[in-house]
């Protein structure tokens, strides 16, 4: 199969769909890999590293789209890229179609087959191609939060680990899923006093079993949150209710109960944010203050560490990419129901129920399509 990887063109996107290692694995299986020039530069992979892996570099995205049987990307195709997709071409990338009618209509009109990273599942009911980005955002949260806690950035001037004779920062993590667990691990590793709140008792049991000596866990109620935030130096918002906007767990009125210069890191901002005063910010201008409390609310946190994010995403996508290239999308989806769960669009038909519901469009079952 001819596998094409264009340079990402969405503003502030420095990741790339294929690493040189992924290219090498594909070439070793007899596939041809075509990379747009400088596609990997934002993640620290130059053209030579792809050439060494056996890939071919081309000058333009047009050449990539015109030549490849399968396009591998990171972000959803932008309008100019969607015009280059063609009937029968396979697209493997993040799509997030439900809030995006323009993209959905363009993909349907193109006749392509589109498999969305974010809806591929695993046997534990997880989302294996979203998890790496949650891991990155979770581990980054205490890092950016501790920077915000510094006096010059508006914070309380508290060191995460304290020093001998001076206590550590108190960090509250609301939501103990993928983001929250990784955030708590790193915050505890920096020496902070960490408490994780969650609403799922099985999740709290798991956290206690595995991390009992490293951080504390507590059942999440409005009362527990109200009490804990009064003494907190940093609160990390990491909740998710699948398919719904994030619940608002700290109100504006509650900010006045917090210490001046305390920090809120709202990782759930991509779902609307879990603090009333959160509004999405960018890496160029990541923090702001409300009522004396600092807020960090960057909606695409993994972009700050594009190289780590690219490699982590590539590790997760590669087995699926190789299956799609090796077997063709239909056989690969017939063999793997979790990959089939990623099928969102095929030959002008929408195949993902939640997108159809969100956009009021007819949906054909993916099983009917692969078994046709
Ligand atoms: N800003 C970014 O760059 C970025 C990057 C990755 C993920 N995210 C977002 O981070 C959020 C968390 O993602 P995740 O992968 O950890 O999800 P997850 O499903 O693994 O974990 C969410 C957890 O929140 C818990 N929860 C739900 N309601 C709660 C409540 N009221 N109180 C306490 N806990 C509650 C759930 O029980 C679950 O354990 C999502 O909104 C995701 O989109 C943002």
TrEMBL record:
The active site is at 96 (proton donor/acceptor), 270 (proton donor/acceptor). NAD(+) binds at residues 134, 198, 203, 220, 239-240, 267-270, 298-301. Its EC number is 1.4.1.1. SMART domains: AlaDh_PNT_C, AlaDh_PNT_N. Residues 149-297 form the Alanine dehydrogenase/pyridine nucleotide transhydrogenase NAD(H)-binding domain. GO terms for molecular function: alanine dehydrogenase activity; nucleotide binding. Gene3D superfamilies: NAD(P)-binding Rossmann-like Domain. GO terms for biological process: L-alanine catabolic process. It catalyses: L-alanine + NAD(+) + H2O = pyruvate + NH4(+) + NADH + H(+). Substrate binds at residues 15, 75. PROSITE patterns: ALADH_PNT_2. Residues 4-137 form the Alanine dehydrogenase/pyridine nucleotide transhydrogenase N-terminal domain. Keywords: NAD, Nucleotide-binding, Oxidoreductase. GO terms for cellular component: plasma membrane. Belongs to the AlaDH/PNT family. This is Alanine dehydrogenase. It comes from Ruegeria atlantica. The gene is ald_1.
């Amino acid at each position: 199969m001819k596998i094409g990887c264009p340079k990402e063109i969405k503003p502030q996107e420095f990741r790339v769909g294929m690493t040189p290692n992924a290219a090498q694995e594909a070439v070793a299986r007899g596939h041809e890999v075509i990379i747009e020039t400088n596609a990997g530069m934002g993640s620290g992979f130059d053209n030579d590293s792809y050439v060494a892996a056996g890939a071919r570099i081309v000058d333009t995205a047009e050449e990539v789209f015109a030549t490849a049987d399968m396009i591998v990307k990171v972000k959803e195709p932008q309008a100019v890229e969607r015009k280059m997709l063609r009937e029968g071409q396979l697209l493997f990338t993040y799509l997030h179609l439900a809030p995006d009618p323009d993209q959905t209509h363009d993909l349907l009109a193109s006749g392509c087959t589109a498999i969305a990273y974010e809806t591929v599942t695993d046997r534990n009911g997880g989302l294996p191609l979203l998890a790496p980005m949650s891991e990155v955002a979770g581990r980054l949260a205490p890092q950016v939060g501790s920077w915000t806690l510094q006096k010059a950035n508006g914070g309380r001037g508290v060191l995460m680990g304290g020093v001998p004779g001076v206590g550590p920062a108190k960090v509250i993590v609301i939501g103990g899923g993928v983001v929250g667990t990784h955030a708590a691990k790193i915050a505890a590793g920096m020496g902070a006093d960490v408490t994780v709140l969650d609403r799922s008792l099985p999740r709290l049991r798991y956290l206690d079993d595995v991390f009992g000596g490293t951080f504390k866990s507590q059942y999440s109620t409005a009362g527990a949150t109200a009490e804990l935030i009064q003494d907190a130096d940093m609160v990390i918002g990491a909740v998710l209710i699948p398919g719904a906007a994030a619940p608002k767990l700290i109100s504006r009125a509650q900010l006045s109960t917090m210490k001046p210069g305390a920090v809120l890191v709202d990782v759930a901002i991509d779902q609307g944010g879990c603090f009333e005063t959160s509004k999405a910010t960018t890496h160029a201008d990541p923090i702001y203050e409300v009522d004396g409390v600092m807020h960090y609310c960057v909606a695409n946190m993994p972009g700050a560490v594009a190289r780590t994010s690219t490699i982590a995403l590539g590790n997760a996508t590669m087995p699926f990419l190789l299956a799609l290239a090796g077997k063709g999308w239909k056989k690969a989806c017939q063999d793997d129901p979790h990959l089939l769960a990623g099928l969102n669009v095929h030959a002008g038909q929408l195949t993902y129920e939640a997108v159809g519901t969100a956009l009021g469009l007819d949906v054909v079952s993916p099983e009917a399509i692969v078994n046709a």
